[in-house]
Hints:
By secondary structure, this protein is of the alpha/beta class. The chain is built from 11 helices and 12 strands. It folds into 2 domains: about 35-140 and about 280-305, Response regulator (Rossmann fold), CATH 3.40.50.2300; about 140-280, 3-Layer(aba) Sandwich (Rossmann fold), CATH 3.40.50.2300. The model is unreliable at about 1-30 (pLDDT under 50).
Amino acid sequence: MFKKSFVAVVAATLALTACGGGSDAGGGGGSDDGITMGFAQVGAESGWRTANTKSVQDSAKEAGVDLKFSDAQQKQENQIKAIRSYIQQQVDVIAFSPVVESGWDTVLKEAKDADIPVILTDRSVDSADTSLYKTFLGSDFVEEGKKAGDWLVQDSASTDGPINIVELQGTTGAAPAIDRKEGFEAAIAADPDLKIVQSQTGDFTRSGGKQVMEAFLKNTPDIDVVYAHNDDMGLGAIEAIEAAGKVPGKDIKIITVDAVKDGMTALSEGKINYIVECNPLLGDQLMDLAEKVVAGEEVPARVVTEESAFTPEQAKEVLASREY
Ligand code: GYE
């Protein structure tokens, strides 16, 4: 305890000294000169991720936040390394989007012991000790899965007989994969005709979605619906379906999550039937939370992103003005 506060005092003194040396604003301490954020990104696996990275980088620039950015290539060990290096560099705040939910307690404790606040963005962790991070900013993935399932229940209300669904799951162990599955399953339970006959991970990538869909098409007769946990896997599935001589959106219906431009284009062409939106533009809210957390202000423990969903007609309307 003593040691911890001593380290904190020394760190604060160093920070103030650094401020006094180079700044014109001077005085007051705190964040006059902008804060330093270490951001450990998941990777570059999807269109959503690319838009999210750009949003974080643009917002940091605008807010005068000195951003240290790393790309973990979808590997937890790379993210842990990045976080440890941010701790060593004594950044003011660490933000990250955990590739999987489990296994973070040790490194989060290290950050806490170094008095560096952590913000979870986009994806969450399953740590029982919620004091290990200040807040979680991102979507309600269970809700997204529910919206996808609800649409299917409605869409198939007038159809008789079994409807065979194949599911392309996101990265195994990732919060959006776990939650989008859970929400979807809960919603389709309303109609006993709706059955998931195959379910496998495509790792949130286009190539993963294509590969898994090719296998499904070979080994599973009578596929009626694809539920893909993101647009990219759905777009990969479209390629596989077309290569097998079938018409995506007609012979096999497709539901995805994200609503990035490529997904919305396929939706407007009728190749995808429904997209549940997941908003990647979290940068501004993240910088705002970071500044508050560093200043020692209270922030809500959970900040949920607002989102909608799109039909092909709605996609046609908004496509031209879509930012990402
Ligand atoms: O849906 C997917 C990306 O965590 C919400 O990750 C994010 C997901 C997003 O790879 O496209």
